[in-house]
Amino acid sequence: MTLTVLNPATEQPIAELEQAGIEELDEAVSRAEAAFPGWRAVSVADRARLLRRLAGLVEEHAEELARIESQNVGKPIAGARGEVAMVANVFHFYAGAVDKHHGETIPVDGGVDVTFREPLGICGLIVPWNFPLNIASWKLGPALACGNTVVLKPAELTPLSALRLAELALEAGIPEGVLNVVVGPGRVVGQRLVEHPDVAKIAFTGSTEVGAGVMRGAADTIKRVSLELGGKSANLVFADADLERAAAAAPYAVFDNAGQDCCARSRILVQRTVWDRFVGLLVDSTAGVRVGDPSDESTEMGPLISAQHRETVSSYVDGNVVYRGNTPEGPGFWFPCTLVEASNDDRVAREEVFGPVAALIPFEDEAEAIALANDTPYGLSGSIWTRDGARALRVARAVDTGVLSVNSNSSVRVATPFGGFKQSGFGRELGMHALEGYSEVKNLFLSTEA
Ligand code: NAD
Description:
There is one protein chain. The chain is an alpha/beta fold. It contains 15 helices and 18 strands. The protein has a seven-stranded mixed sheet, sandwiched between helices. Helix 3 crosses helix 4, helix 3 runs antiparallel to helix 6 and helix 4 runs parallel beside helix 5. The longest helix is centred in the first third of the chain and has 21 residues. The termini are far apart. The site of nicotinamide-adenine-dinucleotide has 32 residues, from helix 7 and helix 8.
């Protein structure tokens, strides 16, 4: 079975690939299994050196990787360059982390107690199409640093950057079999990876619906699972905020990556006393988002990933549309920046749209802002805009999400933990926290009795 990979900005094929089935997936697991004893035995300094070399190769090939990602996902080239820079930084970070992820000595009677961090074995990494290389690196960095071998399954729509990264890993000197990429349908090879008895862990990023199936599928073999799932994050704008700054930043927190971002602040909650002024400013700043050809250096938003996804996104736009932007003519899965006035009970405010559609919702006071922000099954990210530092802290502690920012909409950094509360998943990626998810604690007691 072949897979035709499209450029969503042109609807033209950019690659034809052979798709793997169960047999090829099993072969990849066998290769990872064969490589595991050798990889875990590589000295700490050498493992760090190899990861650093991979980071260096990503930097050397940054423009090539950014173009692959831009063409395959429809991402603006400037954004794709930033993502590739992060991929290199992720490998640099975990190269530096290898010898800092250590055990403890614990005071006990009659001897000495020490803990070790042991690798899990084979890790299955399943990633989505919205940030293919970035999200793969968030899993690969800590998995490889801890001494695991991996089978990486990219999304069917966007396999190209993962395949290129696997070539660079070999060029860096990471041994054959340590990083295996399998391109194939999620419900076939993804499912098999989840159920495979020799796979120790599944690190999954994707929708909450598929994530629930991953958890069920992993149960029979008691696999470790980490899940990075959907979101419906709130951007809380209080009356005392710098409204100009908040309004200038808000569009990029929803329309970046054409809204196909699990962290999208797709519910913009605005204190009623400044509603008219803020919405006016927001419409102006949204009108300034440059939508168009992803290869153009100045483009800020490209198309959606597929025709089918465009259908889904458009089904959310009803009710009071406050603003609808323009899109290029001709081929491409374009969808305009859209602002909709909504209540928190509307479908557009409850479900993850995963497109450039923001729900604008008024609130009266701090208590209602917190209640609305938490009235969602998700809990991934969010923002709080206020000049009152005590309020910022109060609200931040009360909002049930894994990643928050004050007077900013950025949530993702190489050195800081990233992940969700509630149905946005569990486990943390990035920073030192991610290493916990790719190692097992072994406790050893040594008697000192004569
Ligand atoms: P998806 O759940 O459809 O697919 C994700 C991956 O799972 C793909 O590789 C797919 O092939 C695979 N898959 C599908 N069915 C499977 C099965 N039965 N068993 C095993 N694997 C299977 O998600 P998507 O449409 O690719 O991505 C969009 C979703 O990802 C959104 O919900 C978004 O919020 C979420 N996401 C979350 C984060 C995060 O860090 N929390 C980051 C990015 C995207």
